[in-house]
Amino acid sequence: MDNGKIKHIGVFTSGGDSPGMNAALFGTAKVAEQHGIRVSGILKGYEGMIDGHFIPLESQQLQKTVHRGGTVLKTARSERFMALEGRQLAFKNLQDNDIDAVVAIGGDGTFKGLLAFSEICDIPFIGIPGTIDNDISGTDYTLGFDSAVNTAIENIDKIKDTAESHNRVFIVEVMGRDSGYIAIHSGLGVAADAILIPESGEDFLQLLKKVKDYKSEDGFIVVVSEGDELGAGLVASKIKEINSKVDLRITKLGHVQRGGNPSSLDRMLGIRLGSAAVRALLLGRRNAMVGVLDNQLSLTPFEQVVKQHQVNDELQELLKIFGT
């Protein structure tokens, strides 16, 4: 495989951190080195690109970070990059550092930024989907999603123990601003009594029917996606209205879902996608995201990636059967 004119790749992580990002960095550096390509890390995403914060990366160094959550390159959201002046400065810094190509690990906001950047910058970009929400089209699973679901399940299992002990109703809010994937996967995984997701309007009505006749004989678990139109607080108040006798608690798992060691699936996914990103650049591809569809590596143009990834019909049907 001919590496053409690519001699130096810049890589950065952007948006919310997700377990498996370090594995993706390792995969990127390892394959690049095999082709004699130098790799530089860009600290704090687009902010570091604007400020010129570049550091050399080597696979031997990154190999020691594969098991760690978060991102060794740090991450930040950049308002400056939204302005043309910020993007122009970022482009100049890439040129000054002789960077021929860029690998970006992040979510839809990261790829929208690259689309805007490509209007003034002729450097090829390849994206890696790194977000626990799994809300990106072009891949079956995003980097960090499996780890986040495992963390949610582990915590809800513990909450279920105390719910059973006290005969309580527990509303557990999980992450998922625009997508209910974490809620539906974790909710089904713990056999929750109800699951509320942004994509469904019937789930709440079904919950009210079930909780109306609840007589505190067992624990009752409701898993709510943070992006659901009602939210945990309003759900709790509605439950109290329809059944004032319930002993009810709310638990928001919050950012604990983002942290921790990545699962084996996310470690492998990160290595696969990092490797695939470099190979895509070597083949002359640009402005596309690497992903995995039906366990096969795929490339999706950024224009299609930014579309919202809705919970599919199969999971919607499972939600109707098991989660309501």
What is the N-to-C order of secondary-structure elements (H for helix, E for strand)? EHEHEHHEHEHEHEHEHEHEEHH
Biggest sheet: strands, sense, closure?
Answer: 7 strands, mixed
Structural class: alpha/beta
Give the proportion of residues in helices: 40-55%
What integer value in Å does the Rg equal? 22 Å
Overall 3D shape: elongated
Low-confidence stretches: none
Number of strands: 11
Rounded mean pLDDT is 92
In angstroms, what separates the terminal alpha carbons?
52 Å
Sequence of strands across the biggest β-sheet: 3-2-1-4-5-10-11
* Number of helical elements: 12
| Percent strand | 15-25%
Question: What does the model show?
Answer:
With 324 residues, this protein is α/β, with parallel strands linked by helices. 41% of the residues lie in helices and 18% in strands. The strands form two sheets. Strands 3-2-1-4-5-10-11 form a seven-stranded mixed β-sheet, sandwiched between helices. The protein has a four-stranded parallel β-sheet with strand order 7-8-6-9, with helices on both faces. β10 and β11 form a beta hairpin. The radius of gyration is 22 Å and the shape is elongated. The mean pLDDT is 92.
Nutshell version of this structure?
By secondary structure, the protein is of the alpha/beta class.
Topology:
Elements: E1 8-13, H1 21-34, E2 38-42, H2 45-51, E3 54-57, H3 59-62, H4 84-96, E4 101-106, H5 108-117, E5 125-129, H6 145-166, E6 169-174, H7 181-189, E7 194-196, H8 203-212, E8 220-225, H9 231-242, E9 248-252, H10 264-282, E10 288-293, E11 296-301, H11 302-305, H12 313-322
